[in-house]
Amino acid sequence: MSALKAEEQRRIVAACFARTGLTVEQLWLRYFALGGDVSEVELDAFLQGVLPLPRIQRDMVTHAVNERLDELSGVRRAPYSGETGESTRPRGTLAALLGLLDGAHHAAPERLPEVIATAGRALNLEIAVYLADYDQRHLLPLPGSVSSRAPLPIETSNAGQAYRHVDTLLAEEPGGPRLWAVLLDGDERMGVLEVEAGADTDLHDPALRTQCRWLASLAGHLIAAAMRYGDTLDMTRRGRRRDPTAELLWHNLPPLTAATRDVTVAGGVEPAYDLRGVTFDYALSETTAWLAIFDAGRDSSSAGLVVSTALAAYRSARREGQDLRGQETAVDKALSTQFGDGAAVRGTLAELDLAHGDLRHLEAGGQPPLVLGTEHEADRASTVDSLPRSPFGTGPPGRIMTTRLRPGDLVVLHTEGLSDARDADGERFGLAECLNAHAGRLPPETTRRVLHAAKSHCRGTFTGDAGLLVALRHAGHEAVQPPNSTSSVLTVPPFRPGAA
User: Fold this and answer.
1) What would the DSSP string read from start to end of 245-287?
2) Measured over all CA atoms, what is the biggest interatomic distance in the chain, rounded to whole angstroms?
């Protein structure tokens, strides 16, 4: 049978598309999933009869329309062109993503920058990779990517702005326009991609920006996975050596950020390279967020081992389905069994009902939670009612208290080492005031800024380890926008020193 004429096919496809109830954007997403490589704007122009498409692209559009028509039974299907012999190998964005996955398979971690750059070339882009250091003050170029370039400050650079806001940013740089896309492992910020357009590629193209966000998310997952079986990328992120205790505690931390549609959790610890006895943990489900923070102090040489034991006992009990009382009992028993009467760990256990906002919490010699929200105490951080028991490993069980969180409230668990950080004159760090100052920011940015402020206040000399864990109960599913889901891009002029 002779091939259907291109214009007749286009006309019928456009007519059938009108019956699908889809927007052009929705159709483009279906078409892209099939391997299509023209932009949303080009697709719209094709449907309007302004721009022709190659046969294989026409048939991908046709298939996307027909898939939708199959969902709407009884509606006429659009015809295919009938041409054969043309390659169906994925091109464009799909080729870039598949190339990134294939290239990362069996690749040594240090080869990932090259693999990511190769995937970018499938989109006619030059891509470089920067990772955030563990102090979260600089974005460091990966060796084999842009090693000849200097680190970029997170506070005072366009790349840092993209990192801070978990967004995509188009900026005029000295060498020409750049697109900065944040690297994510789930919801945890890893760094940024620097994207430079090749010939005939427009960084202002919305479809291209979307493709760069997808590429950055996939690259972030692959980098995080590679760091679990190699040291090269981790070594790039370090400012100096960690001693064995700090290494153990950092290894046992969960991702510093995680989220579901109902809650976002973020945490951090200081000092980053000399941690002695603080850790935190959390777990998220569709109905519940479990939170915990532990502090064994800095004075004992065994503090790291003691607090790690408390963490392991807590995780084990939680994963067995134990409630707060069962978790408390497990931690007490593990500490007394392993260390006798000589081990005491201060801390807080909490359990947040995501549907109703009930926060059940138990303090064992630790700091009571703070709550900050748009409807709570006029936007001021306040301490919840608490009846703390003696530290874990000592004394009788404590009393479990309940606090109601409103949608949009932020609950904060912290150690005494954070709230008791002191300057040269002995003045304590104003934790509540600092939280108030950064209200409304994304939780990982709140934790980063609060810990930096505390470190500056005490000039990096913490008398106790500073631990911070925050959880934001979303005000409806749209209240906290998922990272990298923005429909627009920030466009900024060249960065000027001193600009925020």
Assistant:
1) HHHHHHHH---SEEE-SSEEEEEEEESTTS--SEEEEEEE-SS
2) 89
Say if pTM beats, i.e. exceeds, 0.70: yes
Helix (H) or strand (E) holding 303: helix 303-319
Contacts for 444-447: CB closer than 8 Å, 24+ residues apart: 444/166, 444/187, 444/188, 444/189, 444/256, 444/257, 444/266, 445/164, 445/165, 445/166, 446/266, 446/410, 446/470, 447/256, 447/266, 447/267, 447/268
- Per-residue pLDDT 10s for the chain (500 aa) are 345 688 888 999 999 999 889 999 889 888 887 778 888 888 999 999 989 988 888 888 998 898 888 888 665 667 666 554 444 444 566 667 777 877 777 889 898 998 898 888 888 889 999 999 999 999 999 976 555 678 999 999 999 999 999 989 999 888 889 999 999 999 999 999 999 988 778 888 888 888 888 889 999 999 999 999 999 999 999 989 999 999 999 999 999 999 999 999 999 999 999 999 999 999 999 999 999 999 999 988 899 999 999 999 999 999 999 999 999 999 999 999 999 887 899 999 999 999 999 999 999 998 999 999 865 444 567 888 888 899 999 989 999 999 999 999 999 999 999 999 999 999 999 999 999 998 888 999 999 999 999 999 999 999 999 999 999 999 864 333 444 443 334 455 444 434 43
Transcribe 407-421 into DSSP letters.
TT-EEEEE-HHHHT-
| Strands lying side by side in the sheet with 401-404 | 278-284, 288-295, 346-353, 358-364, 401-404
The conformational region for residue 484 under phi > 0 = left, psi -120 to 50 = alpha, else beta, is left
Distances (CA, A) of 487 to 209, 224, 264: 9, 26, 21
- Nearest residue to 438 (alpha-carbon basis) of 414, 420, 412: 412
